Amino acid sequence: MTHCLSSLLRLLYCGSDVTGRSEYGRIVTVVRTTGQRVKAHSKKIPGRKPDNSFEGAAGQRGIIVAHHGVAVEVLFHDGTREMVRVKRRSGHVVGDEVLVTGEVLERLPRRTELRRRDAMRGVHLVGANLDVLGIVVAAFPQPPAGFIDRAIVAARAADLDPFLVINKCDLEQAADAVATLQGIYAGSVQVFSLSAVTGAGLAPLLEYLGAGHRGAFVGTTGVGKSSLLNAICPAIDLKVGALNVFNDKGCNTTTVSTLHALPDGGELIDTPGFQDFGLVDITMQDLAAHYPGFEETHQGACRFRNCRHRTEPGCSVIELVAQGRITAERYATYIEILNEVESGELEARQREWKN
Question: How far apart are the C-alpha atoms of 250 and 78, rounded to whole Å?
Answer without folding.
Answer: 39
